[in-house]
């Protein structure tokens, strides 16, 4: 092979290599974890949200979820949108967050608070989904990367909701390998769902049993909201000691 032909072959090989590797590099950059601390510190977040941060520890929560730029996320019982906004900032303009609420919850508790938040630029990639809990996902939505269900599963237990159907719908909507992050206020052993309406707590083992019955596999647990000093016998609103709360990561098997 002559020197000219050899150099030409090397050049063609280098161009082919760049063409093949460029999408991989772009995908890696797209999937990069955002700066969670910077998201929480964003200057346009409200004072009310910053007060909630003190007990919710959102940077740690976002890191535990593993939310990435470009992801497609469902936030169950979004309520006024505190977590929805944080997730929207994390996935960025190339991602989407579906914020689910039932019409009954909006009417009784949310009112126009979500709509006010939705006007913020950070919420441009959010789709408000008003659907019942036992059928929470629009039929045209599938292949979700992540579902979050924060401090609200206990509420579902005293509503007229088929929780088994709800959990199966969430399982079906996730892509294989996708994650469900669920957090709630801890009840005492043996309480089950009996104190969900009165204390707004749920026994961790009861929740685990219901979620795992849908096919989810527990892959991690976090302790950053654990407070063993909590006797778990009082309402979670305005507690005398910090509430003991569990945070669980489930995965849909590949």
TrEMBL record:
Entry-linked InterPro entries: S-AdoMet-dep_MeTrfase_Alr7345, SAM-dependent_MTases_sf
CDD domains tied to this protein: AdoMet_MTases (cd02440)
Keywords for this protein: Methyltransferase, Signal, Transferase
Parts of the chain that traverse the membrane: none
Signal peptide: 1-28
A Pfam entry, by short name: Ubie_methyltran
Protein name per the record: Predicted methyltransferase
Natural source organism: Bradyrhizobium ottawaense
